[in-house]
Amino acid sequence: AQSVTQPDIHITVSEGASLELRCNYSYGATPYLFWYVQSPGQGLQLLLKYFSGDTLVQGIKGFEAEFKRSQSSFNLRKPSVHWSDAAEYFCAALSGGGADGLTFGKGTHLIIQP
Amino acid sequence: DTEVTQTPKHLVMGMTNKKSLKCEQHMGHRAMYWYKQKAKKPPELMFVYSYEKLSINESVPSRFSPECPNSSLLNLHLHALQPEDSALYLCASSQDTSGGTKNIQYFGAGTRLSVL
């Protein structure tokens, strides 16, 4: 079955420190991959996406993600976090056929320490 | 502009009520989606509309009835809901479902539904 795994339920990072959120996928063929962010009580905002080509993708708010086919991973990174980055982060995948909805990981709750 | 507008933001209803959720986009997108998100869980797909036709129904109970009256508007009609249906209901849209960048989904802020 197709699935997306985010192994970290919670991550705590000090403000100004670097961040890496992990995401692994299990699909027959490489899916389209996305990272979304959700602030409390809000909808989902698209941070970045990977379809093909360059394996390092840049997104909004200073985030980037690296696709590694050999590890079936699509990890999200930010060199220096801000208190406003505290939120829930979801990795999501869409099969190449595209006719389905997104399959989400369970999410990682990011806490920023002052 | 990647705005998807959902109304109302909050809704409280009894188990015998009939209510509707509304979703609107003016990006010219031809695919629209309903997701349900329980607290501290990821969104789960409910329905997909492609070119105003229902293309996916993820075995959703009939007390949820979607409607896509035109390419910009998506409704979710609610009737005889249960307390366990309380959740955040998210609408999304994409250019279409043909694949690639056309499948990028943009989400609204959601409707927080409480069923008493």
Task: Report on the architecture of this protein.
The complex is a heterodimer of chains A (114) and B (116). In chain A, strands 2, 5, 6, 10, 11 and 12 form a six-stranded mixed β-sheet that branches. In chain A, strands 3-9-8-7 form a four-stranded antiparallel β-sheet, with no helix packed on it. Chain A has a two-stranded antiparallel ribbon with strand order 1-4. By secondary structure, chain A is mostly beta strands. Chain A is 0% helix and 51% strand. In chain B, the strands form two sheets. In chain B, strands 2, 4, 5, 6, 9, 10 and 11 form a seven-stranded mixed β-sheet that branches. Chain B has a four-stranded antiparallel β-sheet with strand order 1-3-8-7, with no helix packed on it. Classes of the chains: A mainly beta (114), B mainly beta (116). The A-B interface holds A 32, 34, 36, 41-46, 49, 51, 90, 94, 96-102, 104-107 and B 2, 4, 6, 33, 35, 40-45, 48, 50, 55-56, 58, 88, 90, 92, 97-110, 112.
Could you name the key traits of this structure?
heterodimer; A: 114 residues; mainly beta; four-stranded antiparallel beta sheet; 12 strands; globular; B: 116 residues; seven-stranded mixed beta sheet; 11 strands
